[in-house]
Amino acid sequence: MLPLHGLLLRTPLVELRVPGTAELLRLGEVAADGVHDAAIMPFQVPWTDLPPAERARSVVQNTWAQLGRNTPGDWGIPFAVFHDGEPVGHQRLRARNFAVTRTVGSGSWIGRRFHGRGFGTHARAAILHLAFTGLGADYAESGFHTDNLASAAVSGKLGYHRNGEEIGAVKGERAVTVNLRMSKEDWAPPFPIEIEGLETCLSELGVDR
């Protein structure tokens, strides 16, 4: 078992941890059931357009691949988001050259049938607390496509500031991404957040205390 498997984040609503095999398979089933409204595409890579079985497989494969390629200078933590012991979505925290940049990024999705219940807000708050309080980050960056109002709402609620825009293409169509940034001075936990099992992960994440 990797040290990251012992890392646990807990809020009053959700728990975040790197899933074991059985949990990861159940997380794939959540993705197969649907992640977002078909009228929008919130991701740069449109993986949710895959058929359900392939969508589930991609969740499993991408999680294993992330854990397999992690180094202290380039890492991602592929958390599953759990509510009452069952997976409801995914929240990743990532960084390159963290020891120098002290900057993290993130990406997430919540199963569509679980939308509107606060899981996304609690999951993002948990990884921000890990970044700023646990790892000593100076900045956290994120972004959202202009048609992804749910992501914009979560980011605004937690204290990100706009940091410019990028114009790209998704599925052959123009997509505008609003870039966001938060500093450690901006961070104020909106509810209690617990971190367990971090000390054994620090060297794997390039953090030297």
Automatic annotation (TrEMBL):
Record PANTHER family: RIBOSOMAL-PROTEIN-SERINE ACETYLTRANSFERASE (PTHR43441)
N-acetyltransferase domain sequence ranges: 38-187
Organism: Actinorhabdospora filicis
PROSITE patterns the record matches: GNAT
Source superkingdom: Bacteria
A Gene Ontology molecular function term of the record: protein-N-terminal-alanine acetyltransferase activity
Any Pfam family the entry gives: Acetyltransf_3
Descriptive protein name: Succinyl-CoA transferase
Entries under InterPro entries matching the protein: Acyl_CoA_acyltransferase (IPR016181), GNAT_dom (IPR000182), Ribosomal_N-acetyltransferase (IPR051908)
UniProt keyword list: Transferase
GO CC annotation: cytoplasm
Coiled coil residues, start to end: none
